[in-house]
Design goal:
The protein has 67 residues and is an all-alpha fold. It has helices at 9-14, 17-62. It has one domain (9-62). It is rod-shaped, with a radius of gyration of 23 Å.
């Protein structure tokens, strides 16, 4: 699923300049897409941890039994 984005150093050295530029562009684009997904997952995980922390805090320190 890497679409040829992962090649060896020797193969990279043998490529023409334009082909190298295209390969580098595709790699940067791929990394940016992965980073966007990571940012979404990170927001979801931190939201979930915040809600758990609030629930445990209410239950333990204030004495509210929600269940």
């Amino acid at each position: 699923m890497s679409n040829g984005l992962d090649i060896g150093l020797e193969e990279f050295k043998r490529m023409k300049s334009l082909d190298r530029d295209v390969l580098i562009y595709n790699n940067v684009k791929h990394v940016r897409e992965l980073f966007k997904d990571y940012k979404f997952n990170k927001k979801f995980i931190y939201s979930w941890l915040f809600l758990l922390t609030v629930f445990v805090g209410l239950k333990r320190f204030i004495g509210l039994w929600l269940m």
